[in-house]
Design a protein that fits this description.
It contains 7 helices and 7 strands, in the order H-E-E-H-H-E-E-H-H-E-H-E-H-E. The chain is α+β, with helices and mostly antiparallel strands.
Length: about 220
């Protein structure tokens, strides 16, 4: 009987698990709910192990785990939604990867060829990114610069470093704390398109920002 009541209580945490994605109109299970489910299951197992009364221990552990697991997911869900709203029609792709969020900023809107000077028209987009990062400040901001495969590897490595530095410096100038940043030069590694075409090379010349929650 106790096991049954525990399961019912844990399942009740997930009653709102199906939502409608405001961008696609499709039914989905939010990242927050998956976090809640995983947290609940882990907490329940832990609670059962540490309690002589397995039913009560699982219940308490499950509810505690659900609160923790759902918290990170909800935090990133709301941040993702605000980033999508702020960056709509800017050319920046917002990609959800588990609890992380990736912003892919293609070279045609960020920098001129062979330059680490940010295009003036891109400032407003970075202002929008900084606005959200400042609101949701419990995360690490990884800025990665990429180039196409044209030119020497050493040159590409330096150029990608300078571009990543430029984006990070601009965001810091908008109030994002420098202690949150990790800056990486990726050079021509990890292409996302075919370097044998002009269109592909343009896509590979990019800066990515990965937002990683501090758990």
């Amino acid at each position: 009987m106790k096991k049954t009541s525990v399961l019912i209580t844990l399942l009740s945490v997930l009653t709102a698990c199906t939502t409608i994605n405001p961008y696609t109109g499709q039914s989905q299970t939010s990242k927050a709910v998956w976090g809640t489910a995983i947290g609940a299951a882990t907490g329940a197992a832990t609670g059962a192990l540490v309690s002589n009364n397995h039913g009560a221990g699982a219940l308490v552990g499950g509810l505690a785990g659900a609160a923790v697991g759902g918290g990170v997911g909800y935090y990133m869900d709301t941040q993702e939604a605000e980033l999508r709203a702020e960056l709509a029609s800017t050319g920046v792709s917002v990609i959800r990867d588990g609890d992380n969020i990736r912003l892919v900023m293609p070279g045609n809107i960020t920098f001129k060829t062979d330059s680490a000077d940010i295009n003036a028209g891109f400032y407003s987009t970075l202002n929008s990114v900084a606005k959200v990062l400042n609101k949701y400040d419990n995360s690490t901001v990884m800025v990665m610069g990429f180039t196409d495969s044209t030119g020497a590897a050493s040159y590409n490595q330096t150029l990608s470093q300078n571009r990543a530095n430029a984006v990070a410096a601009y965001l810091q100038g908008q109030g994002v704390k420098s202690s949150r940043f990790e800056i990486m030069a990726m050079g021509a590694s990890n292409p996302i398109a075919d370097n044998s075409t002009a269109t592909g090379r343009q896509q590979n010349r990019r800066v990515e920002i990965k937002i990683i929650p501090n758990k």
